[in-house]
Amino acid sequence: MTARILVVDDIPANVKLLEVKLSAEYFDVLTASDGPSAIELARSEAPDLILSDVMMPGMDGFELCERLKADPATSHIPLVMITALSDVADRVRGLEAGADDFLTKPVNDIALFARVRSLARLKLMMDELRVRQAASGNDEVLAENDVEVEDTIVDARILLADASQTLAGKVSDYLAEDGHRTDHVKTVDEALSAAQGADFDLLIVSLHLGQEDGLRLCSQFRSQDDTRHVPILLLLDEEDLPRLPKGLEIGVTDYVIKPIDRNELRARTRTQIRRRRYHDKLRDMLRSSVALAYTDTLTGVYNRRYMSAHLDRKIVEIAETVKPVSILMFDLDHFKSVNDTHGHTAGDEVLQELANRVTRGIRDLDLLCRYGGEEFVIVMPDADVDVAVNVAERVRSLVADQPFAISGSDTSLDVTISIGAATTRDPMETPEALISRADEALYGAKEAGRNRVRSAELELRSQRSIATGSAGGE
């Protein structure tokens, strides 16, 4: 994915070096030579991430971070400090000022790009929630710092996965100082079992779980409904840093290097829990404030009217973001027989449960709406055709793999859906044209036997591959 990065440093050579590295990875780079200029650019250009030096004349990186986090217009922008300072006390000071991470000079390129992409993804998700909150007609703007540490960042429930009883005892004691409760497990299976159906605010995972791989556990957490959106804090040794980029790629949100410093652990934990509470508050405000005019009264998801405006806006944004937009169009297979055999009340229950299952299977930034009757559309910003098809397959399985219960009846129904996917990178394509292509793909899925996913883009890619192979053979 691409992103707009603001680089702040008073030394031109440092700015140029980062600008060249980031531009080579297709990031859009803005630059500032001091704190006041950085604040002005952050407000006017709304970057996806800020990389700031710490040691600057006048306003240093710590003060810059504090001022940005105190402003509702910029508080949600992730900030990474780049510094020659290696003392734990300096890291803690930066974290308490609101920094998301530290990178030590000379900056390792792999760590830099991994952290940039991870935080840019996080901001994209938060921005989508903020956009929907604004679109709902609610004038209140919630800033991350509105989630006060004193009021809400206490009594959090934390799951710790580590094979060492000694280390677990220390971590639990450190976090208990802030009133947090820690559940300790020693294996991957114990961790997955403990997290099922539970409501944890933070997951702390050691990279080495005895003979088991902590990153695999992190990956499994990200694939489970109960833990998909819970922040993950990774514990690792310094010699394991080369594996950190992979952890950030699969969904780790922060990390602590052993031996664990108490104050750093507490600071990083507060940051992650505050962000989790901020995310939850945005979602709750959105649910409570969305006007009835934009929602479907039966299923509770957005209606066609809202979807049309949202999709139109996302396609127009391609010109600025250069990020693809995909949509999934699906409907229930043989839904008429459900109404005819079991009645319209049963049909309504199926549609309601369908919406619930699909909501669990899509990303936070995706938008589910009822297009009409038993037909639904999912709008997917920043999703190419491969991402769209992967999500579509997950949604299809969530519907097909478990029968639908009907109230007042011992009978359960086997329900399936067919899905058509379409993707665009053209800001001039109309929403109607994109929907039409998805509808054609949906028709193809029906013709191919139902309970399947079809994408015009993937089929075209396959045809080109066959044609190229045939030409090569000749």
Give a structural overview.
The chain is of the alpha/beta class and 474 residues long. It has 17 helices and 20 strands. Strands 13-15-16-14-19-20 form a six-stranded mixed sheet, with helices on both faces. Helix 4 (88-97) runs parallel beside helix 11, helix 8 packs parallel to helix 9 and helix 14 (344-361) packs across helix 15 (385-400). The two termini are 38 Å apart. The modification 4-aspartylphosphate is found at residue 53. Its EC number is 2.7.7.65. This is diguanylate cyclase.
Note the topology.
Elements: E1 4-8, H1 12-24, E2 28-32, H2 35-45, E3 49-53, H3 61-70, E4 79-83, H4 88-97, E5 101-104, H5 109-135, H6 149-152, E6 157-161, H7 165-176, E7 181-185, H8 188-195, E8 202-206, E9 208-209, E10 212-213, H9 214-223, E11 232-236, H10 244-250, E12 254-257, H11 262-289, E13 302-303, H12 304-321, E14 325-332, H13 335-342, H14 344-361, E15 367-372, E16 375-381, H15 385-400, E17 404-405, E18 412-413, E19 417-424, H16 431-447, E20 453-455, H17 456-473
Parallel strand pairs: 1-2, 1-3, 3-4, 4-5, 6-7, 6-8, 8-11, 11-12, 13-15, 19-20
Antiparallel strand pairs: 9-10, 14-16, 14-19, 15-16, 17-18
Concise summary:
The protein has 474 residues and is an alpha/beta fold. The protein has helices at residues 12-24, 35-45, 61-70, 88-97, 109-135, 149-152, 165-176, 188-195, 214-223, 244-250, 262-289, 304-321, 335-342, 344-361, 385-400, 431-447, 456-473; strands spanning 4-8, 28-32, 49-53, 79-83, 101-104, 157-161, 181-185, 202-206, 208-209, 212-213, 232-236, 254-257, 302-303, 325-332, 367-372, 375-381, 404-405, 412-413, 417-424, 453-455.
